[in-house]
Each structure stands twice: as C-alpha cells, then as structure tokens.
Amino acid sequence: MTPEMVVAIGRAIAAFFKTDTSVRVVIGKDTRISGDMLECALAAGLCSMGADACLCGVLPPRELPPLQPSWSMCRHCCLCSHNPYADNGIKVFDVNGFKLSESVEQELEKRILKERHGSPSPVVGRCDAIMDAWTIMEIFCDAVPDLSLDGLRIVLDCSHGAHFSAPDVFSRMGAEIFVLSINRTVSTSMPVRLSAS
Fold first, then answer.
1. Residue 9 phi, psi (nearest 5)
2. Which pTM value belongs to this model?
C-alpha cells in the first residue's frame, strides 16, 4: 500500500460518489506507523476531486458511522487491517456504516487501476480534523446511560491500537476487562486459544 495508490483510491472514491452536492468522507485509522502518511494521501486524493475529508484520528471502523448525526450522509473510510503490523489497508463503508457491495467495490477497483476518475474538479475539497476517540467514547457512554455490564468478564482484542478506548468504555459500564493484543498465537480469529488464555 503506497501513498500513490492511496491517492488514487481517494480520487476514485470521490469521483464515484460525486453528486450535485459535495461528497464528505470521514476517515479513521489505527495506530500503525503508516497511518499518518496514508491518511494524508487519502485526504489529498479526496480533496483533489472536490470531496471533503474529515479526519477523526485513531478510531476503529464501527465507531465511525452511528455516533454523530451530522455524519449521516457521509462516506466512511478506515485505515486498518488484520494483517501483520507492517501492512495496512483501507476499508470503505456506505452512509449507513455497512461494507460496500461487491459490484461497487469492483467498479472502484477498475477506476483505481485505470485511474479513470472523470473530469478534474474545479473546486478543491476541504480537510478538517473533527473528533477524537475520547470524544466518541463520551458520546457513546452518554447515549446508553442505563446499559450495565455488571458481572460480565470480557476479553478484548485491541488489534493494533484502534480500539484503545474500548477497555475504558466497557469498564465504565461495569465489566471486568482482560486486554489482549492481536498476534500469531492468540487473537479473536482463534476463539479456542482465546478462551483458554
């Protein structure tokens, strides 16, 4: 995953979802060392085609869409992966927070590989930093004040750091938390080893 490829991905996303109104894309990332570089590249590609990029910092994919009403018509991208730490990737979600359909993903792939993005935008998009993980956590906890996890013991796989606020969220709700980091021997993709640990 190179910066040049990520710029092309941003341009393709902006061109594909372009409407009469401006396209807004909310971007989250994990803690991989390449995250800052690729975040900037993705934002550059989006803005070059007239889309607005909203940078949220370190956030897991599922925290992006539902917690902020003003994002209801935004596309959502997250720089993350379950690959080894040195590898990064991009996940794109629709305005409802779901993965794109296979047909849409295939069309985006064609545009990326052929660099077929349509006419250049006469307007450059804006890039803003709008929220961080701690603010998201406060919004979530305030939204479900009566939810109690008292008596539950929860094992959290915090991946490469994107879920770093999760232990605090679950602890505030009363659960007893055990935190793991994804690795080759124990992870959420290995439930038997996970429960034994």
1. -65, -45
2. 0.72
Distance CA 15, CA 18 (A): 5
Please name which of 124, 33, 28, 35 lies closest in space to residue 77, comparing C-alpha atoms.
28
Tokens 């959290």, located at residue: 156
Residues β-bridged to residue 75? 25
For 178, how many CA atoms within 13 A lie in the half-sphere containing its CB? 10
Listed residue (89, 91, 57, 59) closest to 75, CA to CA: 91
**Cα–Cα distance between 129 and 106 in angstroms, integer?**
30
CB 27 within 8 A of CB 14: no
Which residue in 81, 148, 165, 181 is the catalytic one?
A: 81
Q: For residues 71 and 64, what is the distance between their CA atoms, to the nearest angstrom? A: 9
Digit-coded pLDDT (tens) for 155-190: 887 766 667 777 888 888 889 988 876 555 555 566
* Distance (Å, whole) CA 117 – CA 160: 33
Residue 104 host element (H or E): helix 102-114
Catalytic residue at 81? yes
Map residue 189 onto helix, strand or coil. Answer: coil
Contact 100, 93 (CB under 8 A): yes
What whole-number distance in Å separates Cα of residue 103 and Cα of residue 72? 23
